[in-house]
Amino acid sequence: MNIPAADEMSCQELVELVTDYLEDALAAPVRGRFEAHLHRCEGCRTYIEQVRTTIRLTGEVEPASLSPEACETLLRAFRTWKVEGGRGTP
What is the pLDDT of residues 5-21, one digit of tens each? Predict the structure, then answer.
């Protein structure tokens, strides 16, 4: 984990912005700070690749292939999320 300078993005901030980054919804200055952090931080590069892989793989899951128990587990997990500022948080 990096300890950022005042104008550098922290790992925590990057994690909070990852969805907007992947959806190309960050303002240019924020995107620049985000990508500069990725350039410096191997851990965050790994995290971004894990998120991309998760998105790709979950897009391949057919609802009919899930067991009733798996469906209920997922529904229960998402029921506990609350929306803050447009983002779901556990």
Answer: 567 899 999 999 999 99
Q: What is the pLDDT of residues 35-88, one digit of tens each?
A: 999 999 999 999 999 999 988 887 777 778 888 898 888 888 778 765 444 444
Q: How many domains, in total, are found in the chain?
A: 1
For 27: left if phi > 0, alpha if psi spans -120 to 50, otherwise beta; the answer is beta
- Residue 72's CB: how many other CB atoms inside 10 A? 11
5 assigned to some structural domain:
no
Q: Which residues of 46-71 are buried (b: 16+ CB within 10 A; e: fewer)?
A: ebbeeeeeeeeeeeeeeeeeeeeeee
| Residue 40 counted as domain residue | yes
pTM to 2 decimal places: 0.62
Residue type, 50: Q
Domain range enclosing 72: 11-89
